[in-house]
């Protein structure tokens, strides 16, 4: 059996193990990684190939799932054809997808060749929540593989770029963000010397745009109420400058421990209190509520969410988001700002939550029109951001 034939058999086995879970498991990426790492026959290059093919299957699941049971070889052939042009995919495609024409850009053109429907690639509930996602350019962006973005920080920006060039890693500056650098999706930046020195952080371009859009004034005291591992906390501390301070809160101790390590590496530990529970007298100058959400803006890197998200889950997320806004609003001083953000493109979690918050008479007004930051604008994840000011 040829190498590609052996890879095809392994791929079909992997997809068979995943298929009972891919419409119900919100932690499917962890399951994929566990399956790949448990197979001792697979090296790092093999794992990159199967991970890319598995994620392609999730992006195009309605075009893959029916043939997986009836004709597994046909499913593998389609995946080889649809997958991104990575170094691992290209030789696999050359044999497994032999005879197919070059894969064209755009879901409609792909569908025409395969005899499928591009509309089938979107869950039915999406039309009510984000009809823009059913057509280009948003549809194509959400079906594409996401790049890796880093955010330069400190004074060693040139050192980061020099190391990338020495390693042969192609890079490109963002046209929208001065500190954002676009890298290939599989770039191994965590092994770089400049990463260990804290000269950059991994942070999606859309995530970076949230705070850039909010217009953060320097030297304030801020609360990051849903900090997670702290990507925005670090960016916020950098924007506030040496006279600023950030308190970062999250219910998960392991996330705050990761934030402390990242802040220490970035030289920002003195500006960020991870887990601090005391509010300053008079309130914060600003509060960021980067709320948990359905994650529809992250489908490029988390395509499984396209199939596990339900209308009930979106409604539940919206209730939590409104509660978090109402709970944190009193922590903002008079004249201060409350920034609401999600990585969702769903109206129920975005515009409707913002409208419901303003309608509760909490003493806030919209400081600027709310915005959805579309993936195709900055080649990253999709976000929503609304800025309120306390009157």
Structure description:
- It is a single chain.
- The chain is α/β, with parallel strands linked by helices.
- Strands 5, 6, 7, 8, 9, 10, 11 and 12 form an eight-stranded mixed sheet that branches.
- It is about 45% helix and about 15% strand.
- It has 18 helices and twelve strands.
- The protein has helices at about 5-20, 30-40, 45-60, 60-70, 70-80, 90-95, 105-115, 125-130, 140-145, 155-165, 195, 205-215, 230-240, 255-265, 305-310, 310-330, 350-360, 375-380, and strands at about 150, 170-175, 180-185, 200, 220-225, 245-250, 270-275, 285-290, 330-340, 365, 370-375, 385-390.
Terminal residue distance: 72 Å
Element pattern in H and E: HHHHHHHHHEHEEHEHEHEHEEHHEHEEHE
CATH architecture group name of the largest domain: 3-Layer(aba) Sandwich
Portion in beta strands = 5-15%
Q: Helix- and strand-based class?
A: alpha/beta
- Rg calc: 22 Å
Please state the overall shape, judged from the principal axes of the Cα atoms. Answer: globular
Helicity, as a percent range:
40-55%
- Mean pLDDT metric: 95
Low-confidence stretches: none
Helix count equals 18
CATH H-level homologous superfamily name of the largest domain: Vaccinia Virus protein VP39
Q: Mind telling me the CATH class of the largest domain?
A: Alpha Beta
CATH topology of the largest domain: Rossmann fold
Major beta sheet summary = 8 strands, mixed
Count structural domains. 3
């Amino acid at each position: 059996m040829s190498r590609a034939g052996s890879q095809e058999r392994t791929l079909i086995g992997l997809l068979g193990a995943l298929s009972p879970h891919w419409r119900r498991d919100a932690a499917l990426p962890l399951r994929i990684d566990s399956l790949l790492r448990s197979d001792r026959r697979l090296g790092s290059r093999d794992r990159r190939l199967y991970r890319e093919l598995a994620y392609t299957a999730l992006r195009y699941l309605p075009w893959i799932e029916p043939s997986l049971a009836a004709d597994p070889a046909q499913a593998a052939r389609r995946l080889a054809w649809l997958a991104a042009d990575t170094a691992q995919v290209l030789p696999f495609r050359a044999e497994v997808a032999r005879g197919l024409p070059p894969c064209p850009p755009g879901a409609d053109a792909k569908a025409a060749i395969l005899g499928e429907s591009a509309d089938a690639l979107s869950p039915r509930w999406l039309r009510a929540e984000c009809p823009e996602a059913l057509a280009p350019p948003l549809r194509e962006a959400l079906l594409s593989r996401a790049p890796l973005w880093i955010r330069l920080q400190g004074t060693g920006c040139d050192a980061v770029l020099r190391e990338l060039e020495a390693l042969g890693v192609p890079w490109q500056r963002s046209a929208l963000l001065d500190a954002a650098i676009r890298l290939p999706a599989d770039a191994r930046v965590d092994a770089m010397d400049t990463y260990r020195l804290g000269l950059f952080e991994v942070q999606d371009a859309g995530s970076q745009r949230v705070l850039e859009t909010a217009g953060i004034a320097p030297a304030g005291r801020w609360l990051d109420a849903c900090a997670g591992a702290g990507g925005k906390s670090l960016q916020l501390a950098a924007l506030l400058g040496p006279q600023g301070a950030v308190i970062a809160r999250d219910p998960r101790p392991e996330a705050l421990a990761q934030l402390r390590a990242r802040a220490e590496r970035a030289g920002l530990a003195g500006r960020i209190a991870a887990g601090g529970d005391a509010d300053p007298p008079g309130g914060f100058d600003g509060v960021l509520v980067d709320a948990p959400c359905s994650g529809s803006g992250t489908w490029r890197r988390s395509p499984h969410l396209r199939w596990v998200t339900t209308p009930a889950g979106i409604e539940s997320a919206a209730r939590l988001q409104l509660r978090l806004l109402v709970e944190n609003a009193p922590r903002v001083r008079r004249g201060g700002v409350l920034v609401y953000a999600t990585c969702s493109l769903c109206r129920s979690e975005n515009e409707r939550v913002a409208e419901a918050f303003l309608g509760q008479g909490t003493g806030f007004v919209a400081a600027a029109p709310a915005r959805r930051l579309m993936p195709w604008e900055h080649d990253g994840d999709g976000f929503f951001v609304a800025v309120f000011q306390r009157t």
